[in-house]
Structures are given as structure tokens and as C-alpha cells.
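=== RUN LOG ===
request id: a7f3
mode: sequence -> structure
chains: 1
length: 359
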Amino acid sequence: MTQEHGAPAGVRFSATALKTFIRGVLTAVGVPEEDAEIVAHVLTEADLTGRQTHGISRLPMYVARLRQGAMNPTPELRWEEPTFPLVRVLDGDNGLGPVVAWRAMEEAVALSREHGLGCVAVRHSNHAGAMSAYCEAAAVQGQILLALTNSPPGIPPWGGRRAFLGTNPIAVAFPRGRGAAPLVIDLATSVVARGHIIEAARQGEPIPEGWAIDAEGRPTTDPQAALKGAVLPMAGPKGYALALMVEVFSGVLSGAGVGPGVANPYEAGSGPSNVGHFFWALNPRGFGDDSVFYGTLAALETQLREVPPMPGHTVRLPGDRAETERQTQSAQGIPLDPALVGVLNALASECHAPLLEAE
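=== RESULT ===
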């Protein structure tokens, strides 16, 4: 097995190693240390929980946008004068998506802790990684968080053949109390997250039937044709309706881009993305003793797990797989594709940053 750019193929990396590497590359291209730390956390959390399409594989795109001037490494986040006490609007000044989204989440949680709920709409942001990272951070503080974001055109309106709405994910986390990991729900409104198609295209592999259509509206298993066409909405018109809901919350309410007004960061010369986010935090204590909430939620989960399974299946809850991945990869390390390691270390060399090395 050959060694490429300092890291042998098939090596697993600790979460600490990934975070250190991401911080090093970002600070090398002008991102402040504190902001680089936030991005490193969000991307590494995705890889740690098995959401590789939203993890460190996105770093080359982030850096390319920063170096092209299409994304602002040192944004001046601007809060609009509030019209109502519990509602805020944040202008992200075209900053790194994870940084802008993290600050918005913090504000929503602060409002929720003090007043019982808080809503923050965000404009002029960028790709923010897996929204579950923000929901989990809020739930660890005892708050429920619903997180929505729009994205570049990925799915067509139902019956259409051209991508218009993004794959517009929906994420929410509920605290379980007692130091337990939160109950996390994180899903795209498309059949599959577009990142899976991007990854298949990068690896030169076909995609399953039913995922996407080409530019002419025909079903395709070619990821390159799918990227030129559209990903299909999950559950047909229901997924389209949910994507539209996310678009209104994230784009229309905030004043961010909508539909084709959200630029694709993978297209050269596309300019600022103007992604919109929406965070709604809720304090369960506003509805009574939070210990009652935790107990009832635990009882519900137990009852769900006790439902007799279909042959060959196991009854699971949302987030079970991600939590298993976290435990496994925390102990064994996060596996990275050898080709990706090569890309990352070539990027680090270009930026005069330390390479990603196995510990």
C-alpha cells in the first residue's frame, strides 16, 4: 500500500486529529482561531456520527470559496433591531456557514433558556454542515431545537424536471436528561442527501435507481447526470411540500436567497450563496417539570422498542445508528477514504498548513 501526502490508505483518524487539521487549514487561509474551532467541531461531528457527506469532505469546497473571495473569512455578523422580544434576524455577512449558524443557535438557545422560546432567522450564510450538530448542542443544554436550512437547487417541484428547491434538511433534537445523548432526528427532504450523489460522482460509482433524474427528466443512475438534473423528493409530493416549507422558513422569512437565488458553491464563479437558516428553540420547562418530560419521553421510547419487529429487522429510534457510529469511531478512529486523505493533504500543502497524520 502506497503512502500519499503523508498518510497511508485505510488509516483511521481520531476526532482530535481531524479537528486539529481543519483548524490548521482554515487559520492558514485567514479564518480566526475561534471560528475555525467551530467549523472543525461541526465537520468532525458529522464524520464521527457517520454523516460523512457533511464532514471533512466539505473542507476543500470551503477553502476554495474562501480563497476565491466567494466566502468571507472574517464576517461582521449583524443582528437586526428586534421587532418582537423573542424573534431575531441575523445577517451572516457571507461568513462560513457553521460559524454563522452556531451564533444563531446560541442566540436562540439563550432566548429559550430565559424566556421559554426563541426564533432566529438567518440570511447571507453558506453551507452549514449537518444541522444535527446545532440541535445536539442545544439539547445538551436542556433545550429542544428545530433547525432548518435551504440550499442550492437540488429537487424539482412535484411534476417538474428541473431542480428548483434545495434538498432542504429538517433537524430537531430533544434532551433526554440524566446526561443521556439527545434524541436526534435529521433528514433531507429529498430521497437522499445530495452529498451522497456528490460523493458517488467523486468516486466514479453509480447511484441507486429512484434517487435522481437527468436534465431531461429521465431516471438515471449516473451521478454526473444526476448533478446536472435533480434529486427526487422523498415521499413524492409530500417531500416536495416539506422542502417548500423549509424554503419559506429559511429563505422567505429571513430575506435570504430562495430557489435558484441560492448559489451552488461547487460551481466556479457562482458568487455568494446567500443561504438562509431558521432556528427555533423551546424550553421544555415551560410545560411543566422537565423531569416529567424526560420520564415520559423515556417511556415512549421503551414502548416503541418493545413493538414486535418484522422478520429480519430491529426496531430502532432516529439517531440510534449515529450514536452507535459515535461510540465505535470514538474508540477506533474515523475512517477516511484514501483518495480523500490525498485531496486533504494536497490542500494543506497548498495552504502551508500541517498535514493530516495518523496518531
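=== NOTES ===
The two ends are 18 Å apart (CA to CA).
The first strand starts at residue 3 and ends at 4.
=== END ===
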